Amino acid sequence: MITSQPDATGHFGPYGGRFVPEVLMTPLDELERAYLEARRDPAFQAELADLLKNFAGRPTPLYYAKRLTEQLGGAKIYIKREDLLHTGAHKINNCLGQALLSRKMGKKRIIAETGAGQHGVASATVCALFGLECIVYMGEEDMRRQRLNVFRMRLLGAKVVAVTNGSRTLKDAVSEALRDWVTNVHSTYYLLGSALGPHPYPVMVRDFHRVIGEETRAEFLKREGRLPDSIFCCVGGGSNAIGMFHSFIGDENVKLIGVEAGGRSEKLGDHAARFSGGSPGALQGAYSYVLQDSDGQISLTHSISAGLDYALVGPEHAWLHDRHRAEYVACSDMKALAAAQRLARTEGIIPALESAHAVAEAIERAPEEPGKLFIVNLSGRGDKDTDIYRENLPELDDPI
Ligand SMILES: *Cc1c(COP(=O)(O)O)cnc(C)c1O
After folding, report:
1. Does the Cβ of 234 fall within 6 Å of ligand 1?
2. How far is the CA of 198 from the centre of ligand 1 (A)?
3. What's the pLDDT at 144?
4. CB 3.0 to 4.6 Å from 126: which of 99, 261, 350, 379, for a disulfide?
């Protein structure tokens, strides 16, 4: 049976590890120790379970998409509704877990990075909940594109620091957050937003999202009396996907399909499809598949969905890919947009653009697979993407 656990140094096969400055080795050891303790501590787990239920809104529904299924005339499609969680996406699962951990470690100053602002908003939310200081690093370009989320973070009491280096986007924000951590490591907890970065973050973030797959598996067995045939998740850093996949890795008849951002073309710089367009390399703490040029320079990325727009994929996905336990495909900006519109009109659910990538792949495969059972993880809701939908669907935006 295929299982998926890192070794003692945080390696999933050749991937993962700790590519960080020496001064961060001890803090990462301390974090790992605190995390392993918390994982065994029934009081910690009970408090987290209570917050997930009563603050975040778990368990999320597993919804049978009847009209979409009938329209496609093939596989039966279920949707896991992570979009119904507080703050609008799965990210709150991880933020609640790490905020509890920072409190346990006695750290009252929290730093986080954000691209589109979803992780920044979830971080600001849990910091308000626990009375912690919150500083969010965000690229200047992303702040301009995501003004509403900047405002939401400030409304929640967080300080948003504009990052003006490099391309002024997520990668630069992560670098600034790491720099802050190196300087203020004794007082500060770094709340990282995906299954990325140096060990123990990839395994810890995955564990905080495992509840997605655990709920789905139990509920699906109750409803269908068997396991699904295929599960579709979008993959940015890979946290919603690995949280969903983990409960099914040992079930080799369940196909696990990760959908990356195919962007506007297959040219380097026009997408964020690390598996089809990248190769192994290190970025910001971890070794995994990364988009780089022939000199090893990290390339720019593009996606219509900011949450999938990052040059590196989480290391556990790289390992699942190499062992052929999960399959990774890319979906273009245009296909994701079309899938979002279709889901909105057939099911009354406007998805986040990230999640629309997973929906698109399920829509493409369903007609070919009658009798099969599909699950799509709907990682977030589309409210945050209203401006991008408006820009791309001008025919719906006539004021009269
Ligand atoms: C951030 C985000 C993602 C991408 O992050 P993962 O770590 O790959 O899950 C996907 N969907 C939504 C709605 C997001 O906000």
Report:
1. yes
2. 19
3. 87
4. 99
Q: What is the pTM of this model?
A: 0.97
* Distant-in-sequence, close-in-space partners of 340: CB < 8 Å, separation ≥ 6: 350, 351, 353, 356, 359, 382, 389
Q: What is the spatial distance between Cα 331 and Cα 246, in angstroms, rounded to a whole number?
A: 23
CB atoms within 10 A of CB 155: 11
Is any ligand 1 atom within 6 A of the Cβ of residue 355?
Answer: yes
pLDDT for 146:
87
pLDDT at position 167 is 86
Q: What is the pLDDT of residue 1?
A: 63
**Are 123 and 129 contacting, i.e. CB atoms less than 8 angstroms apart?**
no
Ligand 1 center to 231 CA (angstroms): 16
Ligand 1 touching residue 240 (CB < 6 A): yes
pLDDT of residue 26: 95
Catalytic residues: 91, 113, 379
Distance 229 CA to ligand 1 centre (A): 23
Place of tokens 């996907």: 241
Task: Detail the DSSP E strand segments found in the chain.
Answer: 11-12, 15-19, 62-64, 76-81, 109-114, 133-139, 159-163, 188-190, 230-234, 255-263, 279-283, 285-290, 326-332, 373-378
Which of 83, 201, 203, 234 most suits a substitution to test ligand 1, by most atoms within 8 Å of the C-beta? 234
* Cα–Cα distance for residue pair 273/260, rounded to 1 Å: 5
SS3 for 262? strand
The neighbour count for residue 107, using CB atoms within 10 Å, is 21
Ligand 1 pocket residue status of 194, Cβ below 6 Å: yes
Q: How many CB atoms lie within 10 A of CB 391?
A: 10
Structure token pair of residue 250 = 């040992």
Q: How far apart are CA 309 and CA 304, in angstroms?
A: 8
Regions of the chain with pLDDT less than 70: 1, 3
Kindly give the distance from the C-alpha atom of residue 399 to the centroid of ligand 1, in angstroms, as a whole number: 32
Cross-strand pairs, 188: 109
Which pair of tokens denotes residue 107?
């750290």
Closest C-alpha residue for ligand 1 atom 3: 307
